Amino acid sequence: MNESSFWRYLKSKIPVTAHFQRHEDIAAAGIPDLSYAWNGIDGWIELKYYKKWKKQDHNHIDSWTKVQRHWMRKRQEAGSGKCFLFIKIEKEYLLFTGRALAYTLERFSRERLIALSCEYWKDSVTIWELEKILCCVE
Fold this sequence. Notes:
Blueprint lengths: L2 H11 L5 E4 L11 E5 L2 E10 L15 H13 L4 E7 L2 E6 H4 L8 H7 L2 E4 L4 H8 L4
Parallel strand pairs: 3-4
Antiparallel strand pairs: 1-2, 2-3, 4-5, 5-6
């Protein structure tokens, strides 16, 4: 699996009433991989895929760049704040609000990353739980 297959997996679970758009424009630095409209709510999702957990206390979301974090921080400050980081590592899925990680990015243990996530799934994402988080009105 890679980031593209992670997207295909999510896409297969999303109902046809939701609209998700993949963004692959390298000229638009920092824009997350997906935008979505679902149940009247708009938002953004950055996808990250890692094949394996790293050694304890050394899980660094190194492919989430400073430019991506800056874009998410600015969007949250000016917009609805519906920005998420969605990570798949091995058979585990972790969803983070942008607020949870946009301002800092450190090396975390597996347990700490799970604790910081707003939702965690083992083996399979439950679509109604994903919908509840992505479509929550603050």
